[in-house]
Design brief:
The chain is an alpha/beta fold. Helix content is 46%, strand content 15%.
Amino acid sequence: MTWYGKKVGLALGGGGFRGLAHIGVIKVLEQEEIGIDLIAGTSAGALIGGAYACGMTPKEISSRIDAYLLSPEFADSTLRSIGLSFSSRPKNFLNKTRTYVQNRYWVARAFLSPGIVPACDFQSLIAAMIPDIDIRQTRIPFFAVTTDLITGRQIVFSEGPLRQAVLASSSVPGAAEPVRQGNWLLADGGIVSLVPVRAARDAGADTVIAVMVERDLPANTRIETATDVLYRAGEITANALQAEELKDADVVIRPALGSMHWSDFGRSKDLAKIGEAAARDALSRVNACLPVSRKIARFAGRFFSKDKTPSGGRQTL
């Protein structure tokens, strides 16, 4: 229990590379001295939240992302190929043809293996972002949310190898191979909890700030085939489950990411700024929901960190 009593938890949702918007949200919370006592993360939220929980600053997280996107591992990865296919940038005839062929290859691969993207692609990203430590060693208590495909249960990791927990939480169904651990077959936590508000509550958070980076249910989608119908039905179910869980959050921050695809790496530099803008817009709601003891602590901290100078100005110690 923190010395000022009530705990503030941060619930970071999944959404692929859209999750880089979490960096901007965290940056604003730091600047406003809104201390976070625990973090629960799903998928991309587990990756960014895990890095921050280990003590990295938002700037350091962004730098690591940039370095990974320029690395040989990423250049040769299936992740990059998928990202180019779904990029919002204009494509010439050659790129469109290549995308068509690649899409057909990935469809065929989906019928022959448990994941389109090789496990090494996700592992290299996680290794670039997350230190090889036990979850209990993070500076901020951290909880990685996953789903057991055998029982359908939500599994929340608060101990054990941090990289393994983040890998399991990030194993998007169909895209990444599930992670076998004991009797569990673990996949993306977003299957049962896209924004892990309840996991943050169960971990002891009295106030939960939730960040939702997944797309809202698109209204202008085409529904013409049986596959379209099945996919749409899944979206509706996921959207309903998400809306129900978000009701338990004190504040929900929704970065304006539009219809950006989860693998559109070309927009990586914009995402943190979009998250920052959303957090700024939500500050009044965040401040309103903070426990009184936290508000007093913030005021006292700011007051005692200042020293009056002879000229009447203030100098930070």
